[in-house]
Amino acid sequence: MPARFDLVTIDSPHTERLAAFWSAALALHETEREDGDRWIVLSSTDGVRRIGLQRGAHRPGGTHLDLVCEPAEFDVEHARLVALGADELSPPRHEPYGSIVNLADPDGNAFDLCAYVH
Questions:
Q1: Most buried in the list 3, 61, 86, 87, measured by CB within 10 Å?
Q2: Structural contact between residues 65 and 103, judged by C-beta atoms closer than 8 angstroms
Q3: Which of 5, 10, 3, 6 is nearest to 65 (CA)?
Q4: How far apart are CA 114 and CA 101, in angstroms?
């Protein structure tokens, strides 16, 4: 059987803080925890593992998450994520395909909020 995608893992010295942020941002809940805060897994309501947080050195990389919302929700969702602790890396852009804003979580990991025009 070939390798398959399991979940996104973020290395951070602040697993509790990031677990709280990503749980609130994506309506996930904790389903696994090992050694205090060394390993935390966040899953969707249907039990699918989505994000693993592993205590370790913070190493921002060349990958990021793309979050999506409806175009009518873009401004409210953008404000909600910033209120949760996201940093805006650049102002929102409105492109022919929809709206996008580049953000970073409280540990500096980049992610985008996208609202695609259907």
A1: 86
A2: no
A3: 10
A4: 7
* Residue that has been written with the tokens 């929700």 in this structure: 73
Model pLDDT, residue 93: 94
Least confident of 27-41, 49-63, 104-118: 49-63
Positive or negative torsion for Cα 102, 104, 108, 110: negative
Residue at token pair 């980049």 = 110
Is residue 20 within 8 Å of 83, Cβ to Cβ?
Answer: no
What pLDDT digit, counting tens, does each position of 48-67 carry? Answer: 999 999 888 776 676 678 89
Q: What mean pLDDT value characterizes the chain?
A: 90
Q: What is the 3-state secondary structure (H, E, C) of 15-82?
A: HHHHHHHHHHHHCCEEEEEECCCCEEEEECCCCCEEEEEEECCCCCCCCCEEEECCHHHHHHHHHHHH
